Amino acid sequence: MLKFLLRRFFFLLLTYVIATTIVFILPRAIPGNPLSQILANLSQVAQANPEAIRAAEKALMDQFGVGKPVIVQYVEFVGRALKGDLGTSITYYPRKVVDLIVPVIPWTLILLLPATLTAWWLGNTLGAIAAYRRNTWVDKWVLTTSMVLSQVPYYWLGMILIYLFGVKLGWLPVQGAYSLGTIPSFSLEFFLDALKHYIMPFLSIVISAMGGWAIGMRVMVVYELGSDYAFFSEYLGMSDKRIYKYAFKNSILPQITGLALSLGGVLGGALITEIVFNYPGTGYLLFKALTTLDYPMIQGIFIILIASIYLANFIMDFMYALIDPRIRLGQGE
Amino acid sequence: MFSTMIRPLLKNKKFVFGISIFLIFLLLGILGPTFYKVNPTDSTWDIEQGPSSRHPLGTDTYGRDILAQLLHGIRSSLYIGFLAAIISLIIGTLVGSLSAVKRGITDDILSAFTNIVLTTPSVLIAILIASYLRVRNMEVVALILGLFQWPWYARAIRAQLMSIMSREYVYLSIMAGYSDLKLVIEDLLPTIATYAFMSFVLFINGGIMGEAGLSLIGLGPTQGVSLGLMLQWAVLMDAMRRGLWWWFVPPGVAIVAVTASLMVISTTMDEVFNPRLREE
To answer: How far apart are CA A288 and CA A295, in angstroms?
Structure first.
């Protein structure tokens, strides 16, 4: 098991190094050098507040190591990143990128983790139920609904929910993570306010994400129920419930791998959902950075987001190793 | 081919339903803009009006006709989806079949590469690439999306071809002196044709969804109209909070209808051709 985890760790580390190298190379490799464009933009508006903008320009040149050989730039980039310095934001100059990103991360996690896990669990349960009752109305209903739901983008469902429950019915607040004017605190009042704001973004992710899991799980359980051990158990007179349990256990393993692999896509969808809801998370910050071409901020967000996806991947490998007896007992992979 | 492949599909009600919906939208995209000759980017003084006889689906903040945008949007989104799917299919097939045929070090390198791309959060990398490109036409967006969605397909193809490679007829072909290319084209690719087609369909979905996602964060095509761009404009102008449902509902319905119908096509094909899933 340790060997498996070590192998996965080094693989993920290698992949992370490659991904961050891409983050580093892209602005330097793309024709029309976006950096020179920002610098040009900056000097155009330099009259407004010349000193601040010149300082921002210098910080930018420093950070991107303008004029130095690429290798030197890369070493500096890695060295600074390891020390937790992701550069200085242009839009919010002179604030550090890290200081801007860290406060928004909890908001994204609070939304993303419970929503994704709920969707995964609900979807798998529904899919398994559909497979047990194959070709009954339950199965057909679950399959059809899942098929449609799995293709509904999170953010579009979010827009519909905002319109229906926020605007038409007026039941729920239409934007943000808490009411304007309130200051985040650990009081019951704030908690209830935040909860009200949480319902719609949460539901839009859960509802549109669970369809895909249900479809995948249904196929997997159908396969398992059609395999030799299921028939054999049936001939032995084992109760259906017991066989279902085995089938469920065997089918859930690939779904865990699936969850790990889908994280990137799930995160992408959640980031956009944040934008639609004006929810103060990483997605919203990224959106602002993208619209103002704040490249140090964009880079910083990506370095952190990609790292957290790999971290989540590793945690999931760990869970997998715990759950799958073949790995736990050290037989093969 | 008709009796073994097409007829069982046409007997499947779900498949017929899926393909009908898809064809309707395909026709809307191809013929729609030719018959409904309103320019989707022409501003008029009919600002933010609901559906009426003059504008069947209403207008947006600049008085542009939503129906015209929708028809052009369906066309572009399908175009981007198809293009991205073709790119993914080509890369995936090449990588997968090279792995299976060459084995050894080629296979090791390609498999490692596939795994790396598979674990890389492709959505994020796509966002990053798009953010550095000032001008993005439809083809560039399709390319960015197509470059990242092939790994799971390449892996499946590799596994499938590996098992085919140990069949006797393949040995015979190798003994008969077939070149690798001839072997792949004559002996291997036909065995994965159905699977490739099903994956192609899902790649189109990936392309359409990807375009919508990129557009929504402001990184979609910089010219033209697509379903994603329509949604982006609606979000920018806060259409949902201002009750302008005719603006943001149609593009979403089109995305869901097209992708869900393709999904139905793909899953029913699996049901029809895959004996373990076939309904008794």
So the answer is: 11
Position A39 scores a pLDDT of 63
How many residues can be counted in chain A? 333
- In angstroms, the Cα distances linking B88 to B201, B205, B206 are 11, 12, 10
Instruction: Output the average pLDDT for chain B.
Output: 86
What gap in Å lies between CA A276 and CA A266, rounded to an integer?
A: 15
CB contact under 8 A, A174 and B241: yes
User: Alpha-carbon dihedral of residues A133, A137, A138, A144, nearest 10 degrees?
Assistant: 120
CA pair distance B209, B255, nearest whole angstrom: 8
Cβ-based neighbour number of residue A90 at 10 Å: 24
Sign of the CA dihedral running B93, B98, B100, B105: negative
Complex confidence, ipTM: 0.87
CA angle centred on A104, ends A103 and A109, rounded to 5°: 115
- Contact (Cβ atoms closer than 8 angstroms) between residue A297 and residue A138: no
Chain A within 8 Å of B209 (Cβ-Cβ)? yes
Q: Of B97, B198, B91, B70, which is closest to residue B145 (Cα–Cα)?
A: B91
Q: How far is C-alpha B76 from the chain's CA centre?
A: 12
Taken in order B113, B118, B124, B129, the sign of the CA dihedral is positive
In DSSP notation, A55-104 reads HHHHHHHHHTTTTS-HHHHHHHHHHHHHTT---B-STTTTSBHHHHHTTT
In DSSP notation, A231-270 reads HHHHHTT--HHHHHHHHHHHHHHHHHHHHHHHHHHHHHHH
| B9–A contact, CB cutoff 8 A | no
Minimal Cβ distance to A267: which of B121, B242, B264: B121
Low-confidence ranges of chain A (pLDDT < 70): 30-54, 56-57, 59-67, 93, 330-333
pLDDT at position A306 is: 86
Query: What would the pLDDT profile of B167-211 be if each residue is shown by its tens digit?
Result: 888 888 888 888 888 888 888 888 888 889 889 999 999 999 999
* Cα-to-chain-centroid distance, residue A183: 26
Position B280 pLDDT exceeds 50? no
Contact residues, A window 92-131, toward B, CB-based 8 Å cutoff: none
Per-residue pLDDT band at B76 (split at 50, 70, 90): very high
Cis amide leading into A94 (omega within 30): yes
